[in-house]
Amino acid sequence: MMADDSGIPRLPATATPAAVIAALREFGCVVIEDLVEPAVMDRIAAELTPFFNATPLGNDSFIGYSTRRTGSLIARSASFRPLANHPIVLGALDEVLGDHATSYQLHLTQIIGIGPGEQAQPIHRDQWAFDFFDFPAGFEVECHCMWAMTDFTDHNGGTRVIPKSHLWADKLKPSFDETVGVEMHKGSVMLYLGSLYHGGGPNRSEAVRLGINVGYTLSWLRQEENQYLACPPEIARQLPAELAKLIGYSRGAYALGYYGDVQDPFEALHGSSGDAPSFTAAVARTTTAPQGDQDESQ
Could you give the C-alpha distances from 84 to 274, 283, 296, in angstroms and in order? Predict the structure, then answer.
């Protein structure tokens, strides 16, 4: 896998999920260039500008004193929804997250607007949101997209990353000088693992840098953005079935997320089954062992 001079791999919009997966495994991040037309971002911006303008600035150095973070994007922007379940993104997640869990789910949706004069965000791993739990090395529980609503440059607060740092030990405190800036055109997207060390860059320009952060996590972990308040049933009922299930209106595994009399959440929207994982399949995932390792005394 080839990377640019900064060490960040780049792929064209025609890239296959397999190519995205390979880049994520090797570098922990990958930019897919010009994946959607800039006009798509313009439509999203038009729908979300009133909400963004009403969002208060942050109140600490992590959220950002000159940064606005606007969520609930599924409910607020119909034009955004195809980005949340973009086939190239989900094709990669099916292996990166889906190869070691029954399912994954939408974790958060958020416009991040870094304003002029904002300082660099502390370098961190997104998976620290899970109460700083020390997940086993190589066990990925989270993956994010950063979609460029405006061009990302080193000058205007483009995200800073440390390629291959997903292979590093946990709870390190890398310096800003160890990072490189992600530069990409409006309509491009960067995928990165929850274990990658990164942070928002300082904005030395006179304009707001706008990006859309969309996160995904294993279904047995709590979502960062409460999707059932961000996108309540009366709105989720209007969504395509697969997007509603991705939000969390489905069982995460055989005995995770049912409601009422052991009913699938999808029934709450449409009165039909959400095809919950079977108990037999769930048990098979955890009990399959080589023939020679089986206990003959059972």
Answer: 19, 30, 48
136, 208 Cβ separation under 8 angstroms: no
Q: Are strands 160-161 and 180-181 parallel, antiparallel or unpaired?
A: antiparallel
Report the alpha-carbon distance of residue 65 to residue 70 in Å, rounded: 14
CA distance 269 to 74: 16
Residue 54 to residue 167: CA distance in whole angstroms:
39
Residue 248 structure tokens:
């969390």
Under a CB-based contact definition with an 8 Å cutoff, are residues 67 and 200 in contact?
A: yes
Q: Is a pLDDT exceeding 80 seen at residue 283? A: no
pLDDT at 131: 97
Q: Which ranges of the chain does DSSP label H, i.e. alpha helix?
A: 17-27, 38-54, 73-76, 81-84, 87-96, 227-230, 233-236, 241-247, 265-270, 279-287
Q: What pLDDT is stored for residue 277 in this prediction?
A: 65
What integer pLDDT is reported at residue 91 of this predicted model?
Answer: 97
Q: What is the rounded distance in angstroms from the CA atom of residue 59 to the CA atom of residue 61? A: 7
Q: What is the dihedral of CA 159, 163, 20, 145, to 10 degrees?
A: -30
Domains with residue ranges and CATH for the chain: 10-247 (2.60.120.620)
Q: Model confidence over 168-182: pLDDT tens digits?
A: 999 999 999 999 999
Of the candidates 122, 126, 130, the residue with the CA atom closest to the CA atom of residue 144:
126
Q: Report pLDDT for 270.
A: 86
**Rounded Cα–Cα distance for residues 13 and 157 (Å):** 24
pLDDT at position 273: 59
Give Cα 275 to chain centroid, integer Å: 24
- What average pLDDT does range 190-218 have in this prediction? 98
Q: What pLDDT is stored for residue 222 in this prediction?
A: 97
Least confident of 3-12, 76-85, 268-277: 268-277
Instruction: Provide the token pair at 135.
Output: 């997940």
